[in-house]
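Q: Sequence in, structure out?
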Amino acid sequence: MDLSKISIKTKNKTGKRLGRGTGSGWGKTAGRGNKGAGSRSGNVWPYIGFNGGNIPYARKMPKRGFNIYAKEYFQVVNLRDIQEKIKNTKEIGPEALKAAKLIKDADMPIKILASIKEKFAIKATFKADKFSDKARKIIESAGGEAQCLKR
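A: Exactly. Output:
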């Protein structure tokens, strides 16, 4: 079997040639009927959400709840990634994490999580906006310090 000779079988169908005289079967009104918005040019009816002349569903549904515009989004860093990428440092903060390409922006809030399987062995001062409880315990048990940034 030669894969270069495989082809898709398609029928040679051309589109309807509308408005080409009564003999074509699609002449005069070109399949649009006689009167009404559907027969006119520029017709976009029925539009998305149209409900047969009734109130559309989007207008029927109650507009409830609220959006939290002041929500704070954190850049998440795991202790496993820090141990893999950062070595021989006394202080690990936003700049060190950005240099190691663990975060994108040093000005955005950072949260350090405790996703690690092997023993954590970095004795350093960690500076971040938030720490998970488990991450704080792991850092302190390794002889390090977890400091929250005030920004």
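The first strand starts at residue 75 and ends at 78.
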